[in-house]
Amino acid sequence: MRLPRFEYLRPSSLYECLELLEGSGHESRIMAGGTDFLVSLKQGVISPQKVISIRSVPELGSVSEDAEGNLQIGACANLSDLVKHSLVLKKLPALHDAISSVGSMHIRNMATIGGNLCLAPRCWYYNQSKQWRHAVEGCYRTGGKVCHAISGSKRCHAINSSDTAPMLIALGARVCLQKKDNKRWISLREFFRDDGRHHTVLEKGEMLTSVIIPCETGKDRSTFIKIQHRKGLDFAIGSIGASVKGNGRKKEISLIINSISSVPLFLAKAAETVMESGFNESAIGKAAEIARGETGAVTNLFTSAGYKRQIVEVLVKRALSSLKRK
Amino acid sequence: MPDRSNGYSVIGKRQPKLDGPLKTTGRSQFTDDIALPGMLYGKIVRSPVARGRIISIDTGKAERLAGVKAVITYQDCPGLMVGPDEQLLCREFVNYIGAEVAAVAAVDEDTAAEAAELISVEYEKLEAVFSLEKALAEGAPVICEGRKNNCADEFEIDVGDVDKAFSEAEHVRVDEYKLNHNHNCYAEHHVVVADHSLPGKLSVWTPNQSPLFVQKGLAALLGFSVSDVRIFNLNTGGSFSSRGGPRNHHYIAALLSRKAMRPVKIFCAADEEFLMPRDSGEHKYTVKIGVMKNGKLKAIEVVSLFDCGAHWNSILTGVFRGFSNVLAMNYRYDAMRRLGKIVYTNNPPNIGHHGGEIRQLNLVAEAELDLIAQDIGIDPLALRYQNAWEQGDTTIAGVHYGSCGLKECMEKAAKSSGWKKKQGKLPPYKGIGIGCGGIFSGGKSGMKDHDTGSAMVRIGEDGKIFLDIGFSDMGQGSHTTMAMIAAETLGIAAGDVTVIAGDTNLVPYDVTGSSQRGTFVVGNAVKAACLDARNQLAEGASKKLGVAAAQLVFRDRKVFPRKTPAKAISFQSVVSSLLHSDEGRHVMGRGFYNSPTKSREIWVSSLAFSFGAQIAEVEVNPETGVVKLIRMTVAHDVGRVINPLGMEGQLDSQVFGGMGQLLTEECIMEKGLILNPSPLDYKLPRPFEVPEVERIFVESNDPDGPFGAKEGGEGPIVCTVAIANAVSNAVGYPIKEYPITPERVLHALREKENKQETKA
Questions:
Q1: CATH 3.90.1170.50 in chain B, residues?
Q2: Is B408 a catalytic residue?
Q3: Alpha carbons B417 and B402: distance in angstroms, whole number
């Protein structure tokens, strides 16, 4: 497959980058590592007139720790570098697990944290070559009026497969979204949108520039689990990021699951069950069963909705058991 | 000099592949590396409609696009039939998504792609059928005119008195199995360069396993004399049955080149490869086995349906009939019956994958045997052992076994895996399973009435040799094997041999790189050619040493009288003295081999068969259904191991291939489209999934094989059915649909629960 023609821009500062983004509006797309983006370009799933590469923007590649011990990662920080980064290894081993589960080493050598968070939802009815798509009716994603994954549905049901998103949400990460003359911080949990049209809250001319992850204190602990068909080089059938913050009655448990539907899912009821009854086996079992009912899974990308729900149950059970042990 | 049963100087030594260094450093040439002066790039326009009538094709815009040098449609090749029911470039009807409708050649790939998009084809959509049941149903649309009920071919093969044998059986069992569509997944994508810029001559570069078939096919259909078509088969990244002859992109590239009078390259990346798969389509089987309570197998009957997609290939007729013999290959049944039906659908056309249908047939027969063993309360390995054929036997299908190490394979695999300690004694969700099988080493068939392989050897003045063979090395390491056979015969080192292959203008005749015929057939030809050369050398050396030619030994680059090795002279000096003699003789040897059997049936005409037994150990996760293949014990009778290093690679890679096809690899089909057409979504295993493999070679020393060798390139994958049997064993419930994905495991576990509840 060949790349279509586009204008390639390579700003060397964040200011220049935001200016280009502002000036080009919907005609342009940001490219970080390009591991997913370039495939979509080749398939003609997206066809921007301008591609803005952020690989040479120095501000976006940094990893640092602030005075409170929070970890700040630039959107363009490379996943292989992060896997090896001492701060990630030492302070956030679960995040390390999540990052090292992405793609393969070759992919991580190119891919970035911002890219993984902005990863476009995938669907096996449109993440296909032009020639292939020519054989099926256009869907919501390609300008048509149907969803092949759920026929009769009024929206797109592509699947969000980011592995770092559920972990970072569970860790309480916040993301910085910047425009030429505006900068806002929001919780990563609020970054994703589930309307089947736009998968993030990014506005025109806006981009994700960094992620900040609060440091874990005291008895805080977290875990990441991914179930996939192959050992590596695979998107998840389901992945979970889970964390416990605080202690005793103030304890807060987060269970975030992804690759099941269009956005990372917050399993509130399941988490509540364990918060109320503690980490005992029956509560864990009950939470897992509740989680199963809490998710609206879609038959798409290799597995049926029923199997995805089963995987949710397994992931919740495994994640809670792992947190119990930690 | 008679063959020695041991004491070889080259055979049996671990020889790294001779082309290994070039390949591992990325310097080997593949077809896509070919760039000829003035070469154009072709692009094929494919049907987006599964079944339809072509109302119009408008190529005007494409033809007017700057840089476009040729556009072709059916009008450029009227009546050019590439199969019994398939016209090259669709004329009136399209019958599958991906069918070739038109093609363009342009100065670069982007222009070709742009031009292809400018060709507008108007279709009237017609009702299509995608499942075997619907295709066979009353009133289904007829996909191929004149073929009632969409039945492309139907056959029945009876050996022995089947009904009598079943009526005598004390226990009979019938089960249904389904094998889903899987893809070949070549390491090298489809690519072709065709150069027809000189009138009357056609040169074609393309990865393939049978240069002769490609050459003959192109010559016959495009009106050339065979020798005017030159096929270059550089390195080939895998073939797996469906690179055995000319494919449509070969014809299209040649026609584009003819029209543009310039060379044309067509490259099909993964996305396009899955639109033109010619894989193994869906198989459905009903398997019936009759047995006596003491374990004596009486009869086997297999009724099968095969989805050949939109086009039926006449090769299937010969292959499916001939391969039915697999049912009686391993065990002493009194009788066997095979009823087969090949069915048209509007799925992409299918040919086969890995040994035609042998792997599939053996899979269901071996799975059923486990159920039979369970029913009558006999250990599955013991049941197989009790009924296994032995050396010297002639099977009910009339196949004679000059060598047969099946029982020895079972014994060794059982011992090494600890079968007795494990079978029936493993904790829940852990399983152990056995699979036996094998395959012929070359043979004649409907597609070839002889099985000739040939070789020429040219001996250089420095004592190094050139070995010319027409046989393809698709990665299996055959060229290294051939070099070793040549080196052993001439008493030189494998590294002294340069194999010349891959250019039909340079190499002698060779039928095909299929039917597992390399080591056995071509090996025999190589040996014959080298013996021819050696006889000439021996004549010269005999004068030099004053010893009768028959008394001479060729070994370690030396020639010496058997009784007085100290009198050795160098191999090179013998070559040199002949060249510098009054006669001025350049030593060249020639040889060919064709199975001397009278039969023209692929199975019966083969002289040697490999056999194997494999034992798989698995662990199933009852929550996710994920199967972990822990350990494989692989025992295979290959007659004689020519190159242990190469053979180990073959065993490992076939375990790899087998586990993929049994556990993960499946083309998810929907309305004639493959939903997972990429190496990312088509779940080919990765090296990380490969289990621990214990390899056991059984050397039965075949009387007809070169140095006793027979095939080892396909037999082992046939035995990987052990994996499926181990999963059923772990689950405690038979799984009858493949590949055994996690969802199917969970489904089996649920069914098992339901059944237990009903019983309770």
A1: 34-126+198-272
A2: no
A3: 28
Task: Using an 8 Å CB-CB cutoff, list chain B residues near A1.
Answer: 269, 271
Quote the minimal CA–CA distance from A205 to chain B in Å: 31
Which residues are CB-neighbours of B180 under 8 A, at least 6 positions away? B282, B666, B667, B669, B737, B738, B739
The pTM assigned to this predicted structure is 0.95
Residue B51 with chain A: CB contacts under 8 Å: none
Instruction: Say which CATH superfamily domain B34-126+198-272 falls into.
Output: Aldehyde oxidase/xanthine dehydrogenase, a/b hammerhead (3.90.1170.50)
Tokens of B425: 């004694």
Give the CATH class of B283-444+601-759: alpha beta
8 Å CB contact of A307 and B668: no
pLDDT of residue B1: 38
In whole angstroms, give the CA distance from residue A167 to residue A2. 35
- Identify the three-state secondary structure at position B290: strand
Q: How far is A311 from chain B (nearest CA, A)?
A: 7
By CB neighbour count within 10 A (0-12 exposed, 13-18 middle, 19+ buried), where does B314 fall? middle
Q: Are B141 and B294 in contact (CB under 8 A)?
A: no
Residues of each domain in chain B carrying CATH 3.30.365.10: 20-29+452-593, 283-444+601-759
User: pLDDT digits over B648-699, tens only?
Assistant: 999 999 999 999 999 999 999 999 999 999 988 999 998 888 899 999 999 9
How far apart CA B571 and CA B560 sit, in angstroms, is 9
Please enumerate in sequence order all residues whose Cβ is within 8 A of that of B118, keeping only pairs 6 or more positions apart, or say none: B61, B62, B65
CB-CB under 8 Å, A135 with B48: yes
Answer whether B463's CB lies under 8 Å from B504's CB.
no
Q: Which residue of B has its CA nearest to A43?
A: B271
Contacts of A88 (CB under 8 A, 6+ apart): A63, A71, A82, A95, A96, A99
* Burial grade of A56 (CB within 10 A; 0-12, 13-18, 19 or more): middle
Pick from A2, A136, A231: CB nearest B689: A231
Res B4: pLDDT: 41
Question: Helix (H, G, I), strand (E, B), or coil: what is residue A158?
Answer: coil
Q: Best mutation site among B681, B690, B749 for testing chain A: the one with the most A CBs within 10 Å?
A: B681
Question: What's the pLDDT at B448?
Answer: 67
Does position A247 have pLDDT exceeding 80, yes or no?
A: no
ipTM above 0.90, yes or no: yes
Q: Does domain B20-29+452-593 have CATH number 3.30.365.10?
A: yes
Closest CA to A220 of A69, A113, A101: A69
Q: Name residues whose C-beta falls within 8 Å of residue A283's C-beta, 6 or more positions apart in sequence.
A: A273, A274, A276, A277
Select which of B714, B751, B753, B757 is catalytic.
B714
How many Å lie between the alpha carbon of A64 and the closest alpha carbon of chain B? Answer: 34
8 Å CB contact of A233 and B686: yes
Q: Which residues of B touch A (CB under 8 A)?
A: 46, 48-50, 97, 109-110, 113, 269, 271-272, 275, 623-626, 664, 668, 672-673, 675-677, 680-681, 683, 685-686, 688-689, 742-743, 746
User: What pLDDT is stored for residue B450 in this prediction?
Assistant: 87
Q: For the ranges B244-248, B285-289, B415-419, which has the lowest average pLDDT?
A: B244-248
